[in-house]
Amino acid sequence: MTFTTTGAKPTLAAIARLTGVSAPTVSKVVNGREDVSPETRAKVLAALEEAGYQSPGQRRTAAGPVVVEVAFDAINSNYATTVLSGILDFAAEADVEVLLSTTRHVRSQGGDLGSRAQRMLDEGRAGMIVVTSAFAESQLMAFRRRQIPVVVIDPLNPPPADVVSVGATNWAGGRAAAEHLLDLGHRRIAYLGGPESAECNQARLHGYMSALMSRGIDVDPGLVIHGNFRTEYGIEGLARLLALPERPTAIFAGNDAIAVGVLREARRRGIRVPEELSLVGFDGTALAEDSVPALTSVSQPLHDMGRAALRTVLRQSRGEQLDSHRVELATQLVVRESTAPPAG
């Protein structure tokens, strides 16, 4: 297939003649419509690439500022604001404009991302960063069909193989948290985690389980409780653990928000931390530093994760080849005041 031109910009009609399909069919492929066979789509896309065709949105992007959309479930946590600060810092360095949006209205509209993806294409967005959302593969297809780069930070569910995700070494962090408590002498250690199906939660849980089993300690199912990553769940989770016939002497919380909930409930019940109960969080946010006592926590490089996500979107938008579709940055255990050897 060879496209010849006299210097004029390639048109959809010219692509249609070259591929032997109708101009409306070429238009459907350009706009990411689903009602085109895979064979026809592949043929048209190859012709578009060879001809150097650019959509109106792509031409606007080339002439104007680079804009990346960043979608959060909500910007109401230390986690979200720290990730956002990393994105904005790199955006300033790269002369990129950031447009903030939310994923909530998408789910309220039945999860249809087609119109959102088409708007991004029409307006020339360079790509999108999605923070922690549980978008399904079928939903992300709306962006893939339109060749819009998408990077997911800390996805709750594993994204499709060709969608880039950025996260931290959750398994290693979970193991480090449990090993710290084991080294202090604790043997009855509970895990208060987030949603059971969340990928990051599973990795932290398996790291915790690995540490216990490496010391010859069986994992007690009664000490593993799943909920959500909110402070309220830490309050509820501690109440459930204290109702057990044999209470834990230490808790590994799936994130700092859960740990803060545990601290509040422990204080309300007159339980001293760490004298009577040791506690480790995860994320390393300002919550950990500002809590009383200061919280031992596995620190995620949240700021760097935001920077890495934006850098990756920009590389994809330029057509660069990526070495990997999964970027993992190292976690680090930061020991503060909330952990100590068990009483007695």
What does this structure look like?
The strands form two sheets. This protein has a six-stranded parallel β-sheet, sandwiched between helices. It has helices at residues 12-19, 23-30, 38-51, 56-63, 78-94, 104-108, 114-122, 137-145, 170-183, 199-214, 231-242, 256-269, 286-290, 302-317, and strands at residues 66-72, 96-102, 127-131, 150-153, 164-168, 189-193, 224-226, 250-253, 278-283, 296-299, 326-329, 332-334. Helix content is 45%, strand content 17%. It contains 14 helices and twelve strands. The N and C termini lie far apart (80 Å). With 344 residues, it is of the alpha/beta class. InterPro entries: HTH_LacI (IPR000843), LacI/GalR-like_sensor (IPR046335), Lambda_DNA-bd_dom_sf (IPR010982), Peripla_BP_I (IPR028082). Keywords: DNA-binding, Transcription, Transcription regulation. Residues 10-64 form the HTH lacI-type domain. This is Transcriptional regulator.
Major sheet details? 6 strands, parallel
Rg, alpha carbons:
24 Å
Strand order of the largest sheet: 2-1-3-4-5-11
Number of strands: 12
- C-alpha termini separation: 80 Å
Per-chain topology:
Blueprint: H1 12-19, H2 23-30, H3 38-51, H4 56-63, E1 66-72, H5 78-94, E2 96-102, H6 104-108, H7 114-122, E3 127-131, H8 137-145, E4 150-153, E5 164-168, H9 170-183, E6 189-193, H10 199-214, E7 224-226, H11 231-242, E8 250-253, H12 256-269, E9 278-283, H13 286-290, E10 296-299, H14 302-317, E11 326-329, E12 332-334
Parallel strand pairs: 1-2, 1-3, 3-4, 4-5, 5-11, 6-7, 6-8, 8-9, 9-10
Antiparallel strand pairs: 10-12
Helix pairs in contact: 1-2, 1-3, 5-14, 9-10, 11-12
Protein name: Transcriptional regulator
Domain HTH lacI-type: 10-64
Keywords: DNA-binding, Transcription, Transcription regulation
